Amino acid sequence: MAFYLYQLSYSKDAIKAMVASPSDREAAARKLIEALGGKLHHLFFAFGEWDVICLIEGPDDKMMMAGAAAVGASGTVSRSSTVKLMTAADAMAAMASAGKATGAYKPPQG
């Protein structure tokens, strides 16, 4: 399973609707992610550049793209960003592979 950091900013109309009638956005996100075969680990509302930040686990990139597309198609998001994450163990394995392959790479020379 892969991990993703999903960040979004709500549209002005979405914020207006949530202020007028608060709703559980975590439950809504969890339902969508689980319908796609993933798991919502955390959903945080945030100050700053993003209104919501989520940590999501899913089977593959297609699941994450489907979820992001479904949210985007709703018209309630003004922008979003998805970052694929790696565990420390996976990063260490990648560094070990890079160490073995460094001799195969020839840097540009001037």
Which terms summarize this structure?
110 residues, alpha+beta, Alpha-Beta Plaits, 4-stranded antiparallel beta sheet, 4 helices, 4 strands
Can you give me a brief rundown of this structure?
This protein is α+β, with helices and mostly antiparallel strands.
Write structural notes for this entry.
The protein has 110 residues and is α+β, with helices and mostly antiparallel strands. It has one domain: Lrp/AsnC effector binding domain/regulation of amino acid metabolism (RAM) domain (Alpha-Beta Plaits, 2-Layer Sandwich), CATH 3.30.70.920. Helix content is 43%, strand content 29%. It contains 4 helices and 4 strands; from the N terminus they run βααββαβα. The chain has a 4-stranded antiparallel sheet. A hairpin with a 6-residue loop joins strand 2 and strand 3 (52-58). The radius of gyration is 18 Å and the shape is elongated. The model has no long low-confidence stretch (mean pLDDT 96).
Provide the β-strand percentage band: 25-35%
**CATH architectural name:** 2-Layer Sandwich
Helix/strand/pairing class, anyone?
alpha+beta
**CATH topology grouping:** Alpha-Beta Plaits
Biggest sheet character: 4 strands, antiparallel
* Global Rg: 18 Å
Multimeric state: single chain
Q: What's the helix-strand series?
A: EHHEEHEH
CATH class type = Alpha Beta
Total DSSP helices: 4
- Residue runs with pLDDT of under 50 for 5 or more positions: none
CATH superfamily: Lrp/AsnC effector binding domain/regulation of amino acid metabolism (RAM) domain
Mean pLDDT across the residues is: 96
Shape type: elongated
Strand arrangement, major sheet: 2-3-1-4
Give the total of beta strands. 4
